[in-house]
Amino acid sequence: MSSFLSTALSSSFTPSSISSTKDHYKIASSTQISLLNKKPNNQHFHVSACKAIPPQRKNNKNSSSSSLSFETSKVDRRNMLLGLGGAYGAATIIGDKLALGADCTDLPLPYPDLTACTKSVISPIPDDPNAEQVECCPPTPLSEIKPYKIPVNPVKRIRPAAHLVDEAYIRKYMNAIEAMKALPDKDPRSFYQQAKIHCAYCNYGHKVKHPVTGEEVRFSVHGNWFFLPFHRWYLYFFERIAGELINDPTFALPYWNWDAPCGMTIPAMFVPEMSPLAGETRPNPLYDALRNPDHLPLNNDQDRCRQIVFDLNFNRAGGDNQLPDITRVCNNLAFVYRNMVSNAVDAERFMGNKYYVGCDIGRGAGSCELLHNPAHSWTGTTQNNNEDMGNFYSAGFDPIFYCHHGNVDRTWDVWRKLGGNDFGDQAWLDSKFFFYDELGDPVYVSVKDCLDEEKLGYEYQKVELPWLQARPPRKLEKSDVAANSTAPTVANAFPAKLDKVIKVLVQRPKKARSASQKKKKKEILVFQDIEYPMNEFVKFDVFINDEDEVGDLMSKAEFAGTFSTIPHGKGHEGGQVMASSFTIGLDEVLEDLQADDDEYILVTLIPKAGGNKVTIDGLKIDFV
Ligand code: C2O
Question: Measuring CA to CA, which residue among 427, 467, 461, 462 is closest to residue 447?
Fold first, then answer.
């Protein structure tokens, strides 16, 4: 075990690790603040508790799919598939290799052509001329867009866990967001403009000039290898602007530590409409009215500090499950473990598929993006088109977005410390994004320049990583569920619509591989070409050699992973189709199931939301 791991596992949180003065982050004494800082009841939670969960569930609603009806539009399917590169069919995949078509390059993504930015379409069919649109383009730069120069020897910013901050920090943070909100809307540093950055980059407002054909090509920073670097740069500038506005170069954004039991609730400072600080009467700039009221911690006199435990397995369409909190916490830890370890086998599986400009391929969120989706749904599932957090175009308008993404960015750091290696592809390293810096100057930045957080001048407050110990326990006995199953094989089961539970027997090309073979190549299960409407939330869970068809317990060896999406627009009447892949790492799961010698595994897909709108082309086992 690396020293990082043992420190992470054994050390308990020390306030001094984030500040030179020991008292800096200590819990404040005013009543209101101690209310804010009161830790969830599960603060003494120990992962071993997850091993003792009774298998029964309580009042599970078992809603397997949304009740919304879906008619595939009569439009030619090729026109409905959202070609992220624009040129549909320019590339095909032969074996593992990308075959480059005329418009498909392996060149880096240029920064967006701002003159080509269009309103972001938020209705179900983006190519519909009557589609509803929102203006998300950035202000036109008044000066030349220059390469951004990272300050040499930057002042250190230490990003704190949101549930551990004190009154002084909250005041500073509120001041910074308040100052951003007070800037005129046209100021690129205003909260309004910052929020729109996400909409333009994630809801197809921006276009890049194709490096060969010159054609304007729309793209997204979701579902591909730009997910982490784009959001890292986005937070970097947001944080610097916030610090600049309060004149504090050490100001650091907080992170929502939802991967640890104490952080598994919406951080209290975001909740009240008015300032939570004693003696203050101003509105709380961290408040957002468009959040799911059922998921807010309750700070009222009747129910003081009741914590609502965040559910990483939130099914959205099915509403909240009725599992006991402890089960939810254990599910969450297992969910984090699967996405951070079991399924995060390499850069592509963790960070997302490669995406090249002009190639209509490569959409596939990495396990890190899939791990990130639930906090959006959990916070933002509202009647109002899931605004703010639950929809891409509006997510940046909730201040908690930046706190959530702090944690997402932190998972990148943790994954690397656990041994993960970034992409080495020049096309990725040299890809560029456009931002305004803290002085309001237009700049472009490269992926390669954001890989070293120390160089960028920030780090994360160190906390424990309880999910590292949450690998679901190994089965004591080998199960015969696959051997006795009469489920169809892949060829007979796919393509399939996910309107019901699918069980399929998957043949393994190799079995009982040695430890060194496993080290060299990881066995993965790939879901090919999952198609779903882009304006919908869809979710399905995957279990291996499981007898259950409900699948609401994740802290067991059979749970392998979850696929979920975040809607891109409004409406529920169909919508443009997205195509995506999804991957699961099999090595650990099969070891824990004692199924490593088996020729067939039984894969169960359990639709949890929107399944009647999802089709899957196929399923295969690969080695990467
Ligand atoms: Cu660009 Cu969490 O989203």
Answer: 427
Neighbours of 1 (CB within 10 A): 9
At residue 3, the pLDDT reads: 39
Q: Tell me which residue of 431, 440, 395 sits closest to 197, measured CA to CA.
A: 395
Of all residues in the chain, the percent with pLDDT exceeding 70 is 80
Q: Of the candidates 89, 91, 109, 287, which has an alpha carbon nearest to the alpha carbon of residue 201? A: 109
Atom of ligand 1 nearest to the CA of 230: 1
Backbone torsions φ then ψ of 345, nearest 5 degrees? -70, -25
CA-to-CA separations, 583 to 298, 343, 407, 490, 506, in angstroms, rounded: 38, 7, 22, 16, 14
Sequence-distant (≥ 6) Cβ neighbours of residue 376 within 8 angstroms: 389, 390, 395, 404, 566
Helix residue ranges per DSSP H, 389-429: 400-417, 426-429
Q: Which atom of ligand 1 is nearest to the CA of 405?
A: 2
From 94, 89, 224, select the one nearest 580 (Cα to Cα): 224
Amino acid at 140: T
CA distances, 158 to each of 172, 214, 431 (Å): 14, 42, 27
Active site residues: 198, 222, 231, 372, 376, 392, 405
- How far apart CA 301 and CA 598 sit, in angstroms, is 57
pLDDT band at 384 (very low <50, low <70, confident <90, very high): confident
Residue 299: how many other CB atoms lie within 10 Å:
17
How far apart are the CA of 393 and the centre of ligand 1, in A?
A: 10
Cβ pair 340, 418 in contact under 8 A: yes
Integer Cα distance of 553 and 543 in angstroms: 10
Helices 367-380 and 227-245, interaxial angle, to 10°?
50
H helix runs in 530-609, sequence order: 587-592
Rounded Cα distance between 222 and 522, Å, is: 25
What is the rounded average pLDDT for all residues in the chain? 83
Specify the length of the chain in residues: 624
Identify the H or E element spanning 199: helix 191-202
Q: Which residues line ligand 1 (CB under 6 A)?
A: 198, 202, 222, 231, 372, 376, 395, 405
Contact 537, 609 (CB under 8 A): yes
The pair of three-digit structure tokens given for residue 254, joined into one six-digit string? 């907080």
Q: How far is CA 85 from CA 144, 356, 424, in A?
A: 27, 8, 22
pLDDT tens track for 498-551: 999 999 999 999 999 999 999 999 999 999 999 998 888 899 999 999 988 887
